[in-house]
Write a structure and sequence with these properties.
Blueprint lengths: L2 H12 L9 H14 L28 H8 L7 E5 L5 E3 L1 H6 L2 E10 L3 E11 H8 L7 E9 L7 E7 H4 L4 E7 L2 E2 L9 E4 L11 E7 L25
Parallel strand pairs: 1-10
Antiparallel strand pairs: 1-2, 3-4, 4-7, 5-6, 5-10, 7-8, 7-9
Helix pairs in contact: 1-2
This protein binds the ligand Nc1nc2c(c(=O)[nH]1)N[C@H]1C(S)=C(S)[C@@H](COP(=O)(O)O)O[C@H]1N2 and molybdenum atom (MO).
Length: 239
């Protein structure tokens, strides 16, 4: 086993304290993904000929949230992505700020656990570039994505997700503002949605309003790292 493999094992042992400790199958998935492909491995990219004729919407298609609706009504001119938590320079980013960051365009396949896939062309700011601008502190281990869509009737429990720093700095991890060369539609997460290409669909948070750099997500939601994770889905949804 090479140095990369050993580094992967070391990383795993650091995560063993997880609250609802990752089920053993999940740990196995993560170990296999780490050893077989390495955490820097690229998700497959496709050509324009492979694009799905249209990219369907799943889950929330238009957040039932007055603040979001107000932002949408003016084309998100007043949108600000807040970045907070364990960073040296907390700040917010307008859409223009996000467009000014180094970007990446990629044609990838999205796989939803509900049994459908679609290939889309995504363009967005590299999350690594945004993180370089705010300076995560040494304690930061996860990026938490807070979304605009309430997931229950009383308007609480908005959708949220989290990824580790390996995925956060991966070259294909972007805050997408375009789908198939057009501004990201509301149905697919306008104005900003996460693309974290080696993970299943539910990790790709839409309607992202705020990022938080944290050491642990034990005290966020039910402590499992995401809205669907709190309903029992795996936190590490690598494919
Ligand atoms: N904020 C938010 N993000 C979300 C969801 C959601 O309902 N709300 N659904 C997730 C799921 S299960 C999938 S498969 C994809 C769907 O993305 P799409 O609507 O662009 O197809 O978004 C993910 N991110
Ligand atoms: Mo999904």
């Amino acid at each position: 086993m090479g140095a990369a493999g050993l580094a992967g094992c070391d990383r795993l042992s650091q995560t063993d304290w997880f609250p609802r400790v990752l089920g053993s199958a999940e740990k196995l998935n993560q170990r296999v993904a780490t050893l077989v492909t390495g955490r820097k491995a690229m998700a497959q990219e496709f050509t324009p000929a492979d694009l799905s004729p249209s990219f369907r919407s799943n889950g929330t298609s238009n957040p039932d949230n007055p603040e979001y609706q107000t932002l949408a009504a003016t084309g998100f001119a007043d949108y600000r992505l807040e970045v907070a938590g364990l960073v040296a320079k907390p700040r917010s980013f307008s859409l223009a700020d996000l467009h000014a960051l180094p970007s990446r365009t990629q044609i990838t396949r999205h796989d939803c656990v509900e049994g459908w896939s679609a290939i889309g062309k995504w363009e967005g700011a590299k999350l690594s570039a945004l993180l370089d601008a705010v300076g995560p502190t040494a304690k930061a281990r996860y990026v938490v994505f807070r979304c605009a869509d309430p997931m229950n009737d009383d308007g609480t429990s908005p959708y949220y997700e989290s990824i580790d720093m390996d995925d956060a700095y991966h070259v294909q991890t972007i805050l997408a503002y375009k789908l198939d060369d057009k501004p990201l539609p509301v149905a697919n997460g306008a104005p900003i949605r996460l693309r974290v290409e080696r993970q299943l669909g539910y990790k790709h948070a839409k309607y992202v309003m705020r990022l938080e750099l944290v050491e642990s997500f034990a005290h966020i939601g039910d402590g499992n790292g995401g809205y669907w994770e709190d309903q029992g889905y795996q936190w590490y949804a690598g494919i």
